[in-house]
Amino acid sequence: MTDSPRLPQAHRGxxxxxxxxxxxxxxxxxxxxTLLPRLAEVVSDARGVVTGMDLVDVTTTGxxxxxxxxxxxxxxxxxxxxxxxxxxxVKVRHTSDPTFLYHxxxxxxxxxxxxxxxxxxxxxxxxxxxxRIAMAIAARPESAWTLTAKGTSVAIVTDGTAVLGLGNIGPxxxxxxxxxxxxxxxxxxxxxxxxxxxxxxxxxEVIDATLALAPGFGGINLEDIAxxxxxxxxxxxxxxxxxxxxxxxxxxTAVVVAAALLNACRITGRTYPDVRIVHVGCGAAGxxxxxxxxxxxxxxxxxxxxxxxxxxxxxxxxxxxRLAARSNPRxxxxxxxxxxxxxxxxxxxxxxxxxPDLLLEMAPKPIVFALSNPEPELLPEEARKDAxxxxxxxxxxxxxxxxxxxxxxxxxxxxxxATTVTLAMKQAATRAIxxxxxxxxxxxxxxxxxxxxTRLHQAVARAVSDAWLxxxxxxxxxxxxxxxxxxxxxxxxxxPSQIPSDNSGPF
Length: 507
What we know:
Layout: E1 18-29, H1 35-45, E2 49-59, E3 62-71, H2 74-88, E4 91-96, H3 98-103, H4 119-125, H5 129-139, H6 144-147, E5 153-158, H7 170-189, E6 192-197, H8 203-213, E7 219-222, H9 229-240, E8 245-247, H10 248-268, E9 276-280, H11 284-295, E10 300-305, E11 308-309, H12 318-326, H13 335-339, E12 344-347, E13 367-370, E14 388-391, H14 406-416, H15 423-436, H16 439-442, H17 454-471
Parallel strand pairs: 5-6, 5-7, 7-8, 9-10, 9-12, 12-13, 13-14
Antiparallel strand pairs: 1-3, 1-4, 2-3, 10-11
C-alpha cells in the first residue's frame, strides 16, 4: 500500500487500465465510414479500453465524437491521444476527466435537519432559545448526546503523512481523501463525519489538537497517519478520551482481511489453528492484521518486513517485538522456506516485495491476498489456477476495502455509546462481514461482500453495538426495536431512508 500511482514507463502494461483514469476525449474527425471502429482499434492497440462513443455533431467538414476510455495514468492518456491523431487523422480538441469534475466544489456539505423558516424557528435554533439548551448541557453534560449532533458525529483526523499509497503529501493533499471518507460514512452509516486535516509536526501535536476538538464528537477516526506515530497517537487518545478511537488503516483493514480469510478457509476446508500464513509488510495495516489473526486463533504465522523475518531483538521497534514474540513457531528464516507449502499469503507491502514464482510453491488451493496498491504483489494472470485471490483494487474480484467496516462499525459504537474500541467489537464486525457472504456465493469463490449491500452495514452496526452492550450490560440501554428488523433504519433520525443496494447479483 505504498507505491506511487504513476507507473514507470518500463512497467506499463503489467496491469489493466482502470476506472481511476477514466477520461473523455472530444475529437474532430474527417468523414470516414470506418471512423468509429478505427478509433476503438487504435485505443485498444495503445492499451486503453473504450467504454463509450457519442456522436456529438456531424457537419459538411467532419464529425465531432466524444470518446470515453480507461487508461493507466495521465501519461498514458497523452500516449492514446497521440496515437489517435497519428493513426486516424483526428484532432483531439480537449480531454475531460470525470474524476476531477466529480470533485469540483468538494464532495460534502452541511445541511439542516430542522426547519428554519419563521421567527419562532430562529428563536429556538439560536438566541434566545438555544441558551436554555446550552445551560442544560452545562448542568448535565451527558445530555449533549441527545440535544446536539454529538451522538451522530465522528471526527476524521489526519496529518497527511501516509495518504493512500501516495506517502506524506500533507494535510491539504489529504483533504479530498477525507471528504470521500465523510461521504461514505454518511451514505452507508448515517454518520456525520468531519475532515480535520491537521498541520502538525509531531505525534504530540496531533494528540493535543484532537483532545481539544474531541468534546463535539462521539468518536474519533484516525486516518492516513504514518507508522509508528499512529500507534502512539491512538493509544494516548484512547487513554484520555471516553469515546471510541479507531485507526481505520489498522483495524478497519484488519477486520476486513480477517473476514475474507474466514470465508476463504470455509471455501478450502481450512481452520485458523491449522493454517500456515506468510505475511509480508509490517506497517500500520500489516501490524494490525497480524495481531488480529493471532488473537483469532492463528498459530503458524511468519511475518516479514523490509529487513526479513520479524525478529524479537533489542533493535526491533516495540510494536514489532510484540508480534515477533507471538509468531514464527517453526523458526523460519527465509521467504522460500516460509512460502513452501504455505496455505495463505498476505501482502501489504509493494509489488516486488515477493517473487511471484515463490507463490507457486504454496500448498494446494492457496489463499493469496495481494493488497498493495495500485500494483498488487501478484496479478491474476501470475496466480495459480487453483488459487483464491483477493486484492485491494476495485477493478478486480474480492476487493479488500476497509469501507466494508468503518461506516457500520462507528454506527454501532455510537448507537451503544461505547467509550472505547474492544477486541470483541472488532471480532464481531469480522464475523458480521464474513456471514453476509452466502454459501452459494462462496461456491463461486466470493470471499467478501461489496459495500453496496444494504444489510452489510446494518449487520456490522448491530454486531458492534451488541458486542459492546454484552461486555457492558450497565451501559446505554437501546430501544430494542431500533435494530430488530434487518431492513429497517438504524433508528437515529439522520440515517438516509434508502441505502443503495446491489442485491440484483451475487457480487
